[in-house]
Structure formats: structure tokens, C-alpha cells
Design a protein that fits this description.
Blueprint: E1 2-6, H1 15-27, E2 31-35, H2 46-51, H3 65-76, E3 79-85, H4 93-102, E4 109-112, E5 115-118, E6 124-131, H5 151-161, E7 165-172, H6 178-196
Parallel strand pairs: 1-2, 1-3, 3-6, 6-7
Antiparallel strand pairs: 4-5
Helix pairs in contact: 1-6, 3-4
The structure holds flavin mononucleotide.
Residues 8, 10, 14-17, 85-89, 130-133, 146, 174-175 line the site of flavin mononucleotide (FMN).
């Protein structure tokens, strides 16, 4: 099963969503879709903060039910696709909320003297990022690359829980006119073609 996380608030017109849809179709097989842009997971609250540090209980406490559902979805997946816009150099808030629900101590990772050890099995992960500007290098006009706190962050959090096989597909410059947008879409399609053969 492919777990498909779509993170843009812009629904059908979203660049990341449309490329994510294409990627999921190319990968093939059953899909569980989470439209985080439409239905964001709840933010972490005091109950969740207390529950993750409480001694383990036989039943999942109410404060962790959303977390448990999202983690089980990820455990059931053999591939995960995350399609997201870049917002202010980083992940949009709904994707951060998902990360906070699934990166959970003593459930998806353990803290050891050697560092954090992931408890999920490694599966291929695909991150499709749409951005208005450029972050992998200068723009075609030579404007320096902007900071990128998105791709490294997602790589780190997935590695923390055991998912190390990350492929990144960038669609840059999508708000800089139709020509640039077309170029970004074509570049992402070509990158997917190279990845999947
Ligand atoms: C609140 C907000 C913040 C944004 N921040 C950035 C940014 O830091 N860098 C960038 O290149 N584009 C930024 N953009 C532009 C989006 O990344 C761009 O519109 C992209 O298409 C969104 O992806 P989507 O089409 O999948 O929604 C921002 C857009 C919004 C709405």
C-alpha cells in the first residue's frame, strides 16, 4: 500500500498535489490518501505531551489515538509519498502537525546513549516539493538560492523513525509565470522517469 500525504491547502490546483497524483499513479497499487491540507492533524496539546512520557499502558490512551492511527497507517505502507508546498522556507503547518503525531518516543523511535534509533522498517519515501522560488541552486536569472529548511528536516525526521530511502523531487519557480511553471512540471516528470525507469 502507498501512503499518500498531500499537504497543500490549494486542493486540485496545487502543483505538488498534481505531481504527487502523477507519481502515485506511476508507482501503482493500492493507495491510502491523507489530504493533510484539507484535514490537518491536531496540534500537539498538553494531554499528548503528558501521554508520551507516561509509563506504557495496555490500551492506547485517548490523547494518543490520532497519533496511533497515523502511525499504523505508516506501518502498513510499503511506500510513502509526501507532496508538499514550501511555506516560508519550511514545511507547511499541516505537515509539521503530521510529523509531530508520528515521530513519537518509544513508539516510532527510541532514545539511546548512541542517539535516536528508528523503530519502523525502511521503505521508499518520495518527497515532492513545489516552491515559488528556487532552493536547490540559483534561479535561472541568477538570484541566489533561498534557504531550505524543508528537505533536510523531512530527511531527518524520516531517518529518526527508520525511513532512510528518501527521494526528493523539486518543482521550483512555479509562481514565476506559466513558462517557469511548465519547466518545473517537466523537470519533475523527468526526475520521476529517472527514478522509476
Ligand atoms: C504562506 C506561503 C509561504 C510561502 N513561502 C515560500 C517560500 O518560503 N519559498 C518559496 O519558494 N515559495 C513560497 N511560497 C510559494 C509556494 O511554495 C508556491 O505557491 C507553491 O506552488 C505552493 O505549492 P502548491 O501549488 O502545491 O500549493 C509560499 C506560499 C505561501 C502561500
Amino acid at each position: 500500500m502507498i501512503l499518500y500525504l498531500s499537504c497543500s491547502p490549494r486542493g486540485e490546483i496545487s502543483f505538488s498535489r498534481r505531481m504527487g497524483d502523477e507519481l502515485v499513479a506511476r508507482l501503482g497499487g493500492p493507495v491510502v490518501t491523507r489530504d493533510l491540507g484539507r484535514d490537518p492533524p491536531p496540534w500537539i496539546d498538553a494531554g499528548y505531551s503528558a501521554a508520551i512520557l507516561a509509563p506504557p499502558m495496555p490500551d492506547v490512551p485517548p490523547a494518543l489515538t490520532v497519533s496511533e492511527t497515523l502511525i499504523r497507517e505508516l506501518e502498513a505502507a510499503d511506500r510513502v509519498v509526501i507532496a508538499t508546498p514550501m511555506h516560508n522556507f519550511g514545511v507547511p503547518a499541516p505537515l509539521k502537525a503530521w510529523v509531530d503525531q508520528v515521530v513519537r518516543i518509544n513508539r516510532t523511535f527510541r532514545s539511546t546513549p548512541e542517539g535516536k534509533i528508528g523503530l519502523l522498517r525502511d521503505i521508499p519515501a518520495y518527497l515532492v516539493v513545489a516552491s515559488g522560488g528556487w532552493f536547490t541552486g540559483p534561479s535561472p536569472a541568477g538570484t541566489p538560492a533561498q534557504p531550505d529548511f524543508l528537505t533536510g528536516y523531512i530527511r531527518t525526521v524520516l531517518e529518526t523513525i527508520g525511513i532512510r530511502s528518501l527521494h526528493i523531487i523539486a518543482m521550483e519557480g512555479v509562481t514565476r509565470g506559466p513558462e517557469m511553471a511548465d519547466r518545473a512540471v517537466a523537470g519533475a516528470r523527468a526526475a520521476i522517469g529517472r527514478l522509476l525507469g
